[in-house]
Design brief:
154 residues; globular; mainly beta; 2,3-Dihydroxybiphenyl 1,2-Dioxygenase, domain 1; 2 helices; four-stranded mixed sheet
Length: 154
């Protein structure tokens, strides 16, 4: 209950529950400078080097979403690769794939067309992500072996 100007009002605790959403993602890298260069060129975004909680990070500058993304420098990578595989929209798939190769990454799955389909268990992508439900998809690795997906309309 809360009181305001002498008025008592019941407030449901459900109103204050937050739904689980992703608000921050860290990608572990062993060479922050090299990785910032890779991601800047592949994704064509600004990344600033910052210290957060005494950790050296490359913070993605993205005003389009509330999800924070960053690269965090670690002394050594674990033997297994990342289990979270982010998907990034890129303006031009061809340019991004060239940048993957040029800046030390690996193209795991060459760009392929994906389209949104019905209930038959085929590939489905969100219609809000790619205009017309059709786009290109590729799986790549950064210089540290972290897997990420790229998608684009062209």
């Amino acid at each position: 209950m809360w009181h305001k100007q002498g008025i008592k009002k019941e407030v449901s605790p459900i109103l204050f529950e937050k739904k689980p959403v992703i608000v921050w993602v860290e990608i572990s890298v062993t060479d922050l400078t090299n990785s910032i260069n890779f991601y800047k060129n592949v994704l064509r975004i600004n990344i600033s080097e910052e210290y957060i909680f005494n950790k050296r990070m490359g913070v993605f500058k993205n005003e389009q979403t509330s999800v924070g993304f960053c690269l965090v420098e670690v002394k050594r990578m674990e033997l297994n690769r990342n289990s979270v595989k982010p998907m990034f929209y890129v303006n031009t798939m061809f340019d991004s794939i060239q940048a993957v190769n040029k800046f030390g990454g690996v193209v795991v799955t060459k760009p392929a067309i994906m389209k949104q389909v019905g209930e038959k268990g085929e590939n489905i992508i969100g219609s809000n992500l790619i205009d017309g439900g059709v786009g290109f998809y590729a799986e790549v690795e950064d210089p540290d072996g972290n897997v990420l997906f790229l998608y684009s309309n062209s």
